[in-house]
Structure formats: C-alpha cells, structure tokens
Design a protein that fits this description.
Shape: globular
Distance between the termini: 60 Å
Structural class: mainly alpha
C-alpha cells in the first residue's frame, strides 16, 4: 500500500529497509560497500546522527528551562494551592478551586510527585520534564515516519527550539502533556496500519489512548479524529489491520473517552464553567455565530495565524507565510500519504468542531495540542518548495529551505529561554529587603 511506503531516496526509513535486504553478491565486501553507498546517497542533514544532535539540543534547552527555576505564575500558583491543600482522594473526587481546570490524572500524579520530592517549585514542575523529553524522541520518530526528505530535519529543528515546547517542559500545567499526547497517538495510529501488525498491538494502542485521556483533556479530540481517520482509511482500502483497529482499539478509546469527558465535566463547578466560558468567548476562542462583522468569516484562519504569532506561543514573524505552508504541506502530504494526512487533519477537524459547538475553545494555550500538526505540515510544505526551487538550480533549493528556517530561528534568537510570565521571586525578594515596620501590605487572593 502506498500509504505505508516512503519511496523518497532521502528517507531514512527507505534506507533502513534497503540495509536490511542488501543485494546478494559473491563478494563479501559488497554489503559494506552497499551501506557506504547508501550513506553517500543520504545527505548529512537527513542522517540519524544529525537528527539525534537536534534532539540533544532540544533536550538541553528543556533541561535549561527547568533548572532555571523561574517563578510560578498566577495559574501555576493556583494549581499548586490545590495540590498543597487537598489529598489525592479530594483531587480525584472534587472540582478544583481558584477557577482552575486540569485533568484528574495529572493532578493526582502531581500530588504523588510532590509528596516524594517535596513541595518545591522544581518538584511541582518535575513531571513535565520527562514528558517533554519523551515528546522530543517521539516527534523524531513521527517525522521520520510521516515526512519526506529535508522536511524531517526541518521539523525536528523547529520542534527542538520552539518556545512553547521548551516553556511547557517546566510548568505546572498539562499543556506539555497535551502536545506529547498528540505526537504519541499520531505515531500509534500510523503503526496500527502497518502490514502484519499483530493483534496485541491493537490492544496496546487502545490501552495507551485509555491512559492518556486522564492526563490530557484534548486527547479525547485526538482519539476521535484518529478514529475517524481509521474509518475513512478502511472504507477506502478494506485492509485487515485497519479493520482490527476499528473493532478493538477504537471501541476502547470511545468508552474511556466518554468516561473521561463525564468526569471532566463534573470536576468543574458551575461558577468555574461560567467564568471559563466568558473568558474564552471574549477572546474569540469559540466560533462566532451568527457573524457580527465581516472578519468573523476568517475566524479559523485567524486562530491558525495566532498560534504562530502570539507572544505566548510560537512568536513567529510573518504568520501568513507559515499558515500558507500549513495548507501547502497538507495538500502535498495528502497526495503522497493519504492516511498520514488524515491522522493530522482528523484531530484538527474535531478541535474545530468542538469550538463551533461552543464546548472547547480553539485559542492559544488550550490549542497547543495542535502545534505538532502545524509544525509537521509547515515542514512538508517547505520541502515541496525546496524541490521546486532545486529544479532551477541545486543551490536554489538549499537557499529556499534556509530562508524558511529563518522564521523559527529568528523567534528563538529574539527571545531565548528561560521563559517566564510573572517574576514573583524578584518582587518578593525586593519586598523582603525593603519592607519597613508599619508598611501596609495589599495581598491579592
């Protein structure tokens, strides 16, 4: 099946397959010559050592963000307040206070970690660091499986230095888990349709999804989108692997997702629900209907551009360029690997439908789970432009790719880590050193 093959000679997956089945020859040195020939065929930027170097750079940036020990900002402090003053059972059974919303699994594990490591800023933030490091490795695997040619190092480099991917590696919020869940579930979906995939793999995939929904609320949308992608793929190909996934994996996802949705709904008080609804509504997080102004028709396009340009997200200049590359990349991927495109489009479409139904906003940090989709699509679009430019001159392709990589690189250089929102530690240190007897203190609580 074309969806399961990557025929580009630059693909590391295709090279790996060639290495596993070299041509027979009487000359014993032929296999080694074949491997050397394959390495010469694969450009340096697409080789595994370079890709793992990018992963190492990304890991170092995430560890640096963590050890910088920046101040907890208001939302983090509110989450920590719930963690400190509530038992694991209360976190599991009761809605959170301080107008906070978080997955119950995330809160319970955070409580356990804080009891083991102590109630410090670094202890509360520790859980997100291994999640972010695992997401780096999973993203590399996903990019190799899904993308072509130089799109792989482009995507991995962009993911390694992206501000939100670094920032949420050390923050007491579940947004880092949201992004990791999107990456992990997309990778799982692609392996479900591999020819000869064992029955046990379908069960393991179902269990993985059933666990993730307790740590990431948007994971429910991701599972629904991937389930729809599997259904469409089976209607087209009628293959055994997809049929098994639809009969085993998807029902497991559906049952647990329904349970997690009910629990999440009950873990939000009416007051918090009303506050969140108003908070995101005034910020255009929900689809505006009926339209009040001409610009409302561009709501979805504006939300995509915002994910690229917002100072709290990717901070890219020229977001329309990145938005155009997303569209181009999805078109190119659709023509080359239709199921891969469906895996990316499915969760995105479900997220949009949730915003249209006024149930879940599509806005900045709560939509961060869509960023891996956008990054992969941009990389695929950039690779297509590079190939077109290379037809004019080989150097033109390299220049084109480098020029497009300037956008994420510039965002990183202009605002390198560590990232923070509110510097409470500096304020409190000043207060400690300068407070005089009799000074009045106003406390916001």
């Amino acid at each position: 099946m074309a969806d399961h093959l990557n025929l580009n000679p630059l693909s590391s997956r295709a090279l790996a397959e060639k290495r596993r089945s070299p041509k027979k020859s009487k000359n014993r040195t032929d296999p080694f010559r074949y491997i050397l020939w394959g390495l010469k065929r694969v450009p340096f930027l697409c080789r595994r050592p370079f890709l793992w170097t990018l992963v190492a750079v990304g890991a170092a940036l995430r560890i640096f963000q963590y050890v910088s020990d920046t101040s907890l900002w208001f939302d983090e402090l509110s989450i920590v307040r719930n963690l400190v003053h509530r038992s694991p059972m209360r976190l599991l059974m009761e809605p959170l206070g301080d107008f906070q919303v978080a997955p119950v699994g995330f809160m319970v594990v955070e409580k356990v970690v804080s009891r083991v490591l102590g109630e410090s800023d670094l202890a509360f933030r520790f859980l997100l660091l291994p999640v972010a490091l695992a997401a780096l490795v999973l993203f590399l695997r996903l990019a190799e499986r899904l993308l072509d040619g130089y799109a792989v190092p482009f995507a991995v480099a962009t993911f390694a230095i992206g501000a939100p991917f670094i920032r949420y590696a050390a923050e007491v919020k579940s947004y880092g888990i949201d992004m990791a869940a999107m990456i992990a579930l997309a990778r799982i979906a692609l392996t479900l349709r591999e020819p000869g995939s064992p029955r046990a793999h379908s069960v393991r995939a179902g269990i993985a999804g059933a666990i993730l929904v307790w740590f990431s609320q948007p994971a429910v949308f991701v599972l629904a989108g991937i389930g729809a992608a599997l259904l469409l793929a089976w209607l087209r190909d009628r293959d055994l692997e997809t049929r098994r996934a639809l009969l085993v994996t998807v029902p497991m996802w559906a049952v647990v997702s329904a349970a997690a949705t009910v629990v999440a709904y009950r873990h939000v008080t009416p007051e918090t629900r009303a506050y969140m609804d108003q908070f995101w509504r005034v910020r255009d997080g929900f689809f505006p209907w009926p339209f009040q102004k001409p610009g409302d028709a561009l709501w979805l396009w504006d939300r995509i551009l915002e994910l690229f340009s917002d100072p709290m997200v990717l901070r890219y200049r020229w977001p329309a360029l990145s938005g155009g590359l997303v569209i181009l990349g999805l078109i190119v991927l659709w023509r080359r690997n239709r199921f891969g495109a469906l895996v990316l489009l499915g969760p995105f479409a479900v997220g949009v439908l949730a915003a249209v139904a006024q149930q879940f906003p599509l806005k900045t940090r709560v939509a961060l789970y869509l960023l891996p989709i956008l990054i992969l699509s941009v990389a695929e679009g950039a690779e297509w432009l590079r190939r077109q430019a290379s037809r004019l001159h080989p150097a033109a392709g390299g220049v084109c790719m480098a020029a497009l990589l300037v956008v994420p690189a510039l965002a990183f250089v202009q605002r390198p880590p560590p990232y923070w929102v509110e510097d409470h530690k500096t304020v409190l240190a000043f207060f400690r050193d300068h407070r005089q007897p009799g000074d009045a203190v106003l406390v916001f609580a």
